[in-house]
Write a structure and sequence with these properties.
InterPro entries: DUF6000. By secondary structure, the chain is mostly helical. The protein is built from 13 helices and no strands.
Length: 216
């Protein structure tokens, strides 16, 4: 482990509640609401206090754990000062630094402005010309980016996603489109925006309903 990796982990444990990345994988999404709300408050507070240099370090070093924690600190605190960094990586074809599920789509959806929609559109202009990545840790997020752009269009009253859709459009021509579920990604991004804003994403209730349905 390098010195930068060590510093990235130190920053993660300093600014992220409950020991960094672990609660963000599953647990925080299904905690009882009072505990969840307290965690979300601490996540937003940590994101507001964290210096940009620490967040940038967490994105660059330490691996997927610090990357995931940085994504949520940026998203929860709506750190617009990190937008240029996000844009730089997205337009360089690095929406997901370590091939993990979480990508820069989440903070762009949480920031929620026209500028964020344009970053996603710029990324898709290039990403939809790329071949499909092999299974495993993928660095590209074409489907997630398009679903996020559709979400922002709905929020902003714009239509940036339309030029990628339709018969014979870039999305249909991209070989991986048949395997991506845009509606599923859209549900995911809505839940992530709600969670980052301190709301109840509803996963705990959904799991209870699924268990009841399975028993009936």
């Amino acid at each position: 482990m390098t010195d930068d990796d060590n510093r990235a982990f130190w920053a993660m444990f300093r600014w992220s509640p409950n020991g960094g990345y672990m609660p963000l994988i599953v647990r925080a999404w299904i905690w009882p609401r009072p505990r969840q709300a307290w965690y979300q408050f601490r996540l937003r507070w940590g994101g507001r206090l964290a210096p940009a240099k620490d967040l940038n370090l967490m994105l660059d070093a330490g691996g997927w754990r610090t990357f995931m924690a940085a994504i949520w600190l940026i998203s929860s605190a709506k750190r617009a000062d990190l937008r240029p960094r996000i844009e730089q990586d997205m337009l360089a074809g690095r929406p997901c630094g370590y091939g993990w599920t979480y990508s820069f789509c989440t903070p762009l959806a949480c920031l929620g402005t026209e500028a964020d929609a344009l970053i996603l559109a710029g990324y898709l202009d290039h990403a939809l010309t790329l071949p499909v990545e092999p299974e495993g840790y993928k660095t590209q997020r074409q489907g997630q980016a398009l679903a996020t752009l559709l979400y922002l269009d709905q929020q902003l009253g714009t239509a940036h996603a339309q030029r990628f859709l339709g018969n014979g459009g870039p999305w249909e021509r991209w070989p991986g489109s048949a395997d991506d579920d845009l509606s599923g990604y859209a549900e995911q991004i809505r839940a992530e925006v709600v969670f980052a804003a301190g709301g109840n994403p509803g996963l705990r209730r959904q799991m209870k309903e699924e268990r009841r349905a399975a028993r009936s």
